[in-house]
Task: inverse folding
């Protein structure tokens, strides 16, 4: 009944093709996320009522599927998908890409299918310069030592490859807010908006990526895909290997 009532022409989900006039609520109503204008974290209507896809998942499809066309032209590519979102993962799986690998450290806690491998982003079991594409969508904010994770992603990415490294990011804060001494879930929720978040990234996020050697391009394609119901404030962070020597 809800799907029938919500049917319309304002939005169309690229995963399930459901045409709707609105989305379901998602995100946190935390005061700190509102205060810091955290893009991709605040309470908002952004979840497809039919398949459950989120605005940030649809953004990845718009870029990887439409702008870069990895789904039809990625058969000779090696692709690593960290903490794979179900709808985006299904698109890559149905494309039968032989070099597609997906995984998470917590494979037993999220009801992943059996093909999702146990992969620790802090200790990737892949050789250097291995992947043409890495998808890491809203993962780094959960990692205590995100610098080590970024180094590992840099190590396994080919020089000509792309790493799409999305995080929730404050629109009005210059420097990332974090405190590694905090052990309480309640305190992390108060300061970072979610009990399993380790920080709120500021506009220095690109500096954190470039510090290990990445060259970062920041683009926004959301207005081009209004029908997908994307967050028009969310930029895509495209990291490639530059010529800079990585920092320790």
Result:
């Amino acid at each position: 009944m809800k799907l029938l009532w919500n049917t319309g022409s304002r939005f169309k989900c690229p995963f399930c093709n459901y045409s709707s006039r609105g989305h379901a609520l998602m995100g946190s109503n935390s005061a700190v996320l509102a205060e810091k204008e955290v893009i991709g974290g605040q309470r908002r209507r952004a979840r497809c009522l039919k398949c459950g896809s989120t605005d940030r998942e649809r953004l990845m499809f718009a870029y990887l599927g439409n702008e870069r066309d990895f789904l039809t032209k990625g058969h000779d590519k090696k692709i690593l998908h960290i903490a794979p979102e179900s709808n985006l993962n299904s698109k890559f799986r149905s494309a039968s890409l032989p070099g597609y690998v997906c995984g998470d450290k917590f494979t037993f806690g999220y009801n992943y299918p059996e093909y999702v491998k146990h992969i620790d982003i802090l200790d990737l079991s892949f050789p250097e310069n291995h992947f043409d594409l890495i998808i890491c969508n809203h993962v780094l904010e959960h990692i205590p030592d995100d610098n080590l994770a970024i180094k590992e992603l840099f190590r396994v990415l080919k020089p000509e490859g792309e790493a799409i490294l999305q995080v929730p990011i404050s629109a009005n804060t210059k420097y990332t807010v974090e405190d590694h001494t905090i052990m309480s879930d309640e305190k992390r929720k108060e300061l970072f908006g979610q009990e399993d978040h380790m920080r709120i990234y500021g506009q220095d996020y690109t500096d954190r990526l470039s510090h290990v050697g990445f060259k970062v391009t920041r683009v926004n394609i959301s207005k081009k895909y209004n029908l997908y119901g994307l967050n028009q404030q969310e930029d895509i962070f495209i990291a490639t290997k530059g010529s800079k020597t990585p920092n320790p």
Observations:
- The CA atoms of residues 107 and 114 lie 9 Å apart.
